[in-house]
Amino acid sequence: MNPFHYQRASSSDAAIELRSQQDNSRFLAGGTTLLDLMKCGVEQPETLIDISQLSGLDTLRFEDDKITIGALASMSQLADHPQCQALAPAIYGSLWQAASPQLRNMATIGGNLRQRTRCVYFRDPATFPACNKRQPGSGCAALDGVNANHAIFGISDSCIAVYPGDLAIALTAFDAQVVLRNSQQQERRVAIGDFFLLPGDRPDQEHDIAADEMIIAVEVPNVPALRQSHYLKVRDRASYEFAAASAAVGLEIEDGVIRDVRIALGGLATKPWRATAVEQALRGKPFSEEALRLAAEQSIADADPRPQSQFKVTLTPRVIVRALLAAAEPAQRGE
Amino acid sequence: MSENIRLQLNVNGHQHDLAVDPRATLLDALRENLQLTGTKKGCDQGQCGACTVHIDGERVLSCLTLAAQAAGRDVTTIEGMADADGTLHAVQASFLKHDAFQCGYCTPGQIMSAVACIKEGHARSDDEIREYMSGNICRCGAYPHIVDAVREAAAQLSKESA
Predict the structure, then answer these.
(1) Which chain B residues contact residue A50 at CB under 8 A?
(2) Each residue's pLDDT tens digit in chain B (162 positions)?
(3) CATH code of the domain covering residue B10
(4) DSSP-assigned letter for residue A275
(5) Are A100 and B135 in contact (CB < 8 Å)?
(6) Cβ of A159: how many Cβ atoms within 10 Å?
(7) Which residues does UniProt call coiled coil (chain B) (predicted)?
């Protein structure tokens, strides 16, 4: 780890001020991504501004119109909230199936949104000096390397690193907003679909967030489909593993007709990936397994796999169908 | 550039004043500064769970926590589990009874994790124990006995608290 200065912030405004004054500084919350990447030599900040002990930013509110999640709430706090499992099953599922209990106690919601890819080439600068995500223009070892678990959607000639998280997949399915505050104490709301950036030729730029902005909360519209939602995570081992493919889905079915459907995919793309074409194909249609199967095929129209990741093209529609069937189950039973 | 910082760590009910490099993790401070070597360094990357300790009663990874972040908070390590008279914690006793280890390196982390797992209410079935103990890797593969130990300790602790 490179040497750095450690500062514990006294308030969020003080933290943002410190951050805006120092180019190569980072907010330190749970530390599960940042300290890990510092040990790998990927992150080399000169100053860490510890925001983990700030009060008031870990509020959780489940209201009729929206769910508000404070940025410093831990993943466990949100999962353990008495209303999370019942009111937002996809969010709950994306939390308890992520990482490990210890990591979920540490990791914050804000930090979770800023977690970085697990691409082995990105994480190993000593062995693989070239990485367009670390240094744009330097090259990419993954393009012709071991890339079975790399992205098949949203890739560019520069980067095929997969977005590794679970929670943001659920947040993307339900059009969450990321609330940011800057050093002028101005707040800005960014739609989650815009918060995550495509790699293009600047894969180092991953989020729509300025140097003087801090994530202070996430807001999720409390739509009916959220109540009937599900997160399906398919992976190489049963627990404590990143997704090979995952789907956060939600359904609103009225008299057997799909009024609203939400589908976002994880483990497959360079950012949380909304399956818009499948949603469009299903909206207004009678609910049936056959209809789901037909529509889910549209998810892979723009897939761009490597030979090793071809299996994900087969996996994607299956995961979508399974997830939707699981979400529909209570309604099918007439609950 | 990174001058030492002074901080106070409260570990197993004892206050310690120390001066550490800002880069020092809680794991390193426990082992190197306080000679509490029960907490183990496995992967040092947050992937194996060997370094699990409790901060303010919650299980966390001490390898991904800066010592400075733990300042002023209550840290509990495996050395703080048994009673002052040496009576083992129910989970420790259960691990012994069920032979829930082979080499023993992951065991302090397993026990710290299991104590929290039971307290959280996540030890209600074998499947739930496996899921909520998945952050602790046992390279020897003692998992079946670990599940046995956690199940029995959970039953015993719930009987005691009833």
Answers:
(1) 66, 68-69
(2) 568 999 999 999 999 999 999 999 999 999 999 999 999 999 999 999 999 999 999 999 999 999 999 999 999 999 999 999 999 999 999 999 999 999 999 999 999 999 999 999 999 999 999 999 999 999 999 999 999 999 999 999 999 887
(3) 3.10.20.30
(4) -
(5) yes
(6) 28
(7) none
